[in-house]
Specification:
The complex is a heterodimer of chains A (about 190) and B (about 180). Chain A is an all-alpha fold. In chain A, about 80% of the residues lie in helices and about 0% in strands. Chain B is mainly alpha-helical and about 180 residues long. Chain B folds into two domains: about 1-135, no CATH class; about 135-180. In chain B, helix 1 crosses helix 4 and helix 3 (about 40-55) packs across helix 4. Chain B is globular and about 60 Å long. The relative contact order of chain B is 0.11. Classes of the chains: A mainly alpha (about 190), B mainly alpha (about 180). At the A-B interface, helix 1, helix 3, helix 4, helix 5 and helix 7 of A face helix 2, helix 3, helix 4, helix 5 and helix 6 of B.
């Protein structure tokens, strides 16, 4: 019981102090590894690979994984709930305040500034996925041939998905599933 | 009650296809909530992402709480968030229990290399759509360009970028004498 509570509290801290999402949780996870010994630094590195190959946020995945290793299923649940609890509390408070000032002209002005920033960060995140999925800088540096800079299979799939999405408006989940199958059949990971 | 179950199931669905960080959930959110159900607008999604960036916690979780709360109050916020983490939590416990070499499996590597291609196309599609709604004047174009370049080429915290953008928004508003 004490262990479950400790898992909850420790991951609550991680959730409370990592701002900016994704990799922002990493320093806190390394710290947790040093102070509690629940997992090693190597586990965190493995986790980055696992988190890239599983759905969900890396922080959540790490909490479930480490919590389970420390104390079974209840451990996994305690750590995960601990991690998301600060978000829930803080966002619920902010939502309430925002609702109150929705009509306020200054608040509207703030959002006119925030929206382009928000979309810029989403675009930048998209570009970083492009860098992993469609461009192969390592191969280019080794051979120096411009053609090796591009992942041809990936670019063909990207164009097909783009066209199919525009023409059919299929659900994104379906497009993701199809890409997974194409990836397996044509060995995209090699 | 039915609505809460609906909320949980929808977020469980979104949580199980959010590969590669919180932004990857955007195209699915647009489809499920803006187009199919009308539970939120594109503008609201952008606002939630911006706030989710500069508040503590994981962006995807913050956005889930926002939408759930908008739909069904405090309970809705909690249910949506638990729905979002449900599938990854179970999956990761299974991996911890018996599949420690999961990320090394050939089939997993291949599938995810494929998925990443879809994710980048879907994110860029979402950006294209939101662009029309958020880049409404020169100030917006300026903020977009600066934030895009800074987040691509520097490691400045997104929280700081969001706060700076808010300040620019306010200053622009006051400089125009309170007119947008």
């Amino acid at each position: 019981m004490a262990l479950l509570f400790q898992l909850f509290i420790r991951f609550f801290y991680v959730g409370l102090f990592s701002i900016g999402g994704g990799l922002a949780t990493l320093p806190f996870l390394y710290d947790l590894s040093d102070t509690m010994g629940w997992f090693t630094h190597g586990d965190v590195a493995n986790m980055i690979a696992i988190a890239e190959s599983t759905p969900g946020a890396i922080g959540v995945n790490m909490a479930s994984y480490a919590g389970y290793n420390v104390s079974g299923i209840l451990g996994g649940i305690s750590a995960t709930v601990g991690l998301v609890a600060p978000s829930i509390i803080i966002i619920l408070i902010i939502a309430r305040i925002l609702n109150k000032f929705k009509e306020n002209k200054y608040v509207e002005a703030v959002f006119l500034g925030l929206r382009p920033a928000s979309i810029a960060m989403i675009a930048a995140a998209g570009m970083s996925v492009v860098k992993i999925a469609l461009i192969n800088i390592d191969a280019f540096q080794q051979t120096g041939q411009l053609l090796d800079l591009f992942v041809i299979k990936g670019i063909i799939l990207a164009i097909i998905i783009y066209v199919v999405e525009k023409k059919t408006h299929w659900h994104p989940i379906l497009l993701i599933a199809i890409s997974a199958v194409v990836g397996i059949v044509f060995q995209f990971g090699v | 009650m039915k609505e809460l179950v609906n909320l949980f199931v929808t977020f469980a669905k979104i949580g199980s296809v959010t590969f590669g960080g919180g932004y990857a959930m955007l195209p699915v959110l647009q489809r499920e909530f803006v187009e199919k159900r009308g539970w939120a607008t594109d503008e609201e999604l952008m606002d939630y992402f911006a706030i989710g960036q500069c508040t503590p916690g994981i962006i995807a979780v913050n956005v889930s709480t926002f939408i759930g709360n908008k739909r069904k109050g405090v309970i809705g916020g909690i249910v949506a968030t638990l729905g979002f983490v449900f599938v990854p939590c179970i999956l990761l416990m299974i991996i911890a229990a018996c599949l420690n070499n999961f990320a090394e499996l050939e089939i997993v590597k291949n599938a995810f290399a494929g998925i990443r291609v879809a994710v980048c196309v879907l994110i860029l599609n979402a950006v294209e759509r939101l662009w029309k709604k958020s880049i409404v004047n020169k100030m917006a174009l300026f903020i977009f360009t600066v934030v895009f370049l800074l987040s691509l080429f520097t490691s400045i915290s997104p929280a700081i970028l969001v706060i700076l953008a808010a300040i620019v928004g306010i200053v622009y508003f006051m400089a125009r004498g309170g007119n947008q």
